Amino acid sequence: MNTTPEERLAAAGLKLPPVAPPVAVYVPAVVSGHYVHTSGQLPMVDGALPRTGKVGGEVTPEQGAELARQCALNALAAVASVAGDLSAVKRVVKVVGFVASTPDFTGQPGVVNGASELLGTAFGDAGIHARSAVGVAVLPLDAPVEVELIVELHTPMGV
């Protein structure tokens, strides 16, 4: 029996949150043909950041990975808002994770694994993707992590 990405998330105790409103002048996601590009998503929960600061400082790598998971969940909500639902997604193509980290912290890939693992939970093999994990000095609102996605849809939209 085939299950939907939303059902797989529910089995893991997760559900798509409401789309986080933009914190500046942009939209959460844009469709271009077969692809959805999300804006960078912060780990917002109920309109607020659960943690602020730098990974390797005030935020542990494990906490950073949980925040990256929340970023990915928020990005999936943005995808669903323009694609109808997550069953429209053929595959996750690219993940870019930004980790606000202390100068000596080099574990950005482990932090962004939180997002990658969530995508695997939701999409199985279709969640395997190319990825960048980048350390940065600061992110909007002093968020520890930000994640953006590019996903491919089964059928083009807006064409």
Describe this structure in words.
With 159 residues, the protein is α+β, with helices and mostly antiparallel strands. Helices cover 29% and strands 26% of the residues. Strands 1-4-2-3 form a four-stranded mixed β-sheet, covered by helices on one side. Strand 2 (89-100), helix 3 (108-123) and strand 3 (130-136) form a beta-alpha-beta unit. Helix 1 packs across helix 3.
Poorly predicted regions:
none
Tell me, briefly, the overall form: globular
Radius of gyration, in Å, reads 15 Å
Major sheet attributes:
4 strands, mixed
Question: What share of the residues does DSSP label as strand, in percent?
Answer: 25-35%
User: What class, by secondary structure content?
Assistant: alpha+beta
Estimate percent helicity: 25-40%
Termini separation (Å)?
Answer: 32 Å
Distinctive features:
4 strands, 3 helices, single chain, four-stranded mixed beta sheet, 159 residues
Briefly say what this structure is.
The chain is α+β, with helices and mostly antiparallel strands.
Produce the secondary structure layout.
Elements: H1 5-11, E1 29-38, H2 61-83, E2 89-100, H3 108-123, E3 130-136, E4 145-157
Parallel strand pairs: 2-3
Antiparallel strand pairs: 1-4, 2-4
